[in-house]
Amino acid sequence: MLKSLKGYRSSFHLAKQLARRDITSQHRQSIFGIFWVILPVIMNAMVWIFLQSSGTIQLTPTNIPYPLFALVGTAIWSIFGECLNMPMGTINGNRGIITKINFEKEALISLGLIKIGFNFLIKLTMILFFILYFQVIPATSMLLFLPFLFLVMLFFISIGIIISPIGILYNDISKFIPIGLQLLMYITPVLYVIPKSGLMHAIMKINPLSYIITDIRNTLTGMPIENGFFWLGFLVVTLFLSLIAMVVYRVSMPIITERMSA
């Protein structure tokens, strides 16, 4: 674990250079530029906003304006998805330098973190714009937004790192993740609140992501934290997973590098 931490520290400069290259090239040949970061979020939310406002579907009333509810939910969910996909995506996207240059492979995770941070700032700006537009009054719970969000991001990144050795060898994993996230979103209160009864109520209540997405959205929209004790347990689980992820990454990367070079 100490070697892994030293690897992150010594390779951070390389990670910054790679991140600058990737972010610049990603938006250089695009008309809309960084707008593409938030376009999928807005389009996904707009579909549900239209369905709800037109009466096509009947959703349980929300404590905040529904458009804000949907936009914040989809933005947060997209961040979770980025974190989960990041380890495999970064490793696969840098096969060339992995096989040709000897460097601390923790630079790849740092690279992914910088790119996620860049996208996060864009999405956060969008969220704050809509919070101001709908005149939502913030509360002291907003101070917990970043700690809660960063903890969940660490959780998903750790899972992404742990499954990345299998995902690099078998493309089925990377193809299944978007499908799994899409299905999981519909049993999580991303676009609608937990029903008061019924099968979906029972499913959402046993889904830990329900407590996560609800409280993170509450911190941004002036609502109280509903699941305080849950976060204490989640902190322990996340720290444990992050330690496992560091060990798995350190042990597996030489094997992955060798397989890529073969």
Number of helices: 11
Main β sheet profile: none
- Helix-residue proportion: over 70%
Fraction of residues in β-strands: under 5%
Order of helices and strands: HHHHHHHHHHH
Described by the principal axes of the CA atoms, the overall outline is: globular
Number of domains: 1
Low-confidence stretches: none
Task: Please tell me the overall pLDDT.
Answer: 87
Instruction: Tell me how many strands there are.
Output: 0
The first-to-last residue Cα distance is 28 Å
Radius of gyration: 19 Å
Assign the structural class, choosing from mainly alpha, mainly beta, alpha/beta, alpha+beta, or little secondary structure: mainly alpha
Main traits of this protein?
single chain; 262 residues; mainly alpha; 11 helices; globular; ABC-type transporter activity
